[in-house]
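**Backbone shape codes:**
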Amino acid sequence: EKRGRGQAPRWYITNDELDSLS
């Protein structure tokens, strides 16, 4: 998971995370 960007809150799913879920 890629959450080390520092601009998106934890509850916000990034496109990278959405891609990983599929």
Observations:
- The longest helix spans residues 15-21.
- The CA atoms of residues 13 and 19 lie 10 Å apart.
